Backbone:
């Protein structure tokens, strides 16, 4: 005698017919995965997130001696500068700033330095050179003297 189908015994587990019950297992796995990601992202945000770089704190202002810079056509510019340093910067050498000012202003026409808009553009150009020379220790440059002849 041959048996083709035997009823399951009490200790054996039966498989659900296809299409029934398999979706619940996948859904649970997806929900668990999403929850793990959310908890992980929240933990990173609150505990491991690097602090945003804060703006540098202004420190002392260093006033440099005035210099005379030769302009075009025999004119000159008497230029005085002050440097706003960061809180961490101390005892900087002003020679780099004076050299940068000479580089920016030398040989310009008197009309180029006489107008306010041009002076601000020149200040920005000088600030770029100071940022390179002092590696971010100078926050701002101020004109303390600006006389042309």
Residues:
């Amino acid at each position: 005698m041959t048996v083709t189908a035997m009823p399951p015994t009490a200790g054996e587990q039966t498989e659900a017919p296809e299409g029934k019950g398999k979706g619940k297992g996948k859904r649970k796995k997806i929900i668990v995965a999403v929850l793990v990601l959310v908890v992980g992202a929240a933990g990173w945000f609150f505990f491991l997130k690097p602090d945003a770089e804060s703006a540098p704190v202004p420190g002392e202002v260093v006033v440099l001696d005035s210099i005379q810079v030769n302009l075009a056509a025999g004119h000159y510019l008497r230029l005085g500068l002050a440097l706003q340093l960061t809180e961490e910067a101390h005892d900087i050498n002003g020679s780099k700033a004076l050299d940068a000012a000479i580089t920016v202003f030398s040989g310009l026409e008197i009309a180029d330095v006489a107008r306010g808009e041009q002076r601000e553009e020149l200040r920005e150009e000088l600030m770029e050179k100071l940022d390179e020379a002092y590696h971010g220790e100078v926050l701002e440059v101020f004109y303390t003297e600006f006389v042309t002849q």
Notes: The first strand starts at residue 58 and ends at 63. Residues 22-48 form the longest helix (27 residues). The chain has a mean pLDDT of 85.
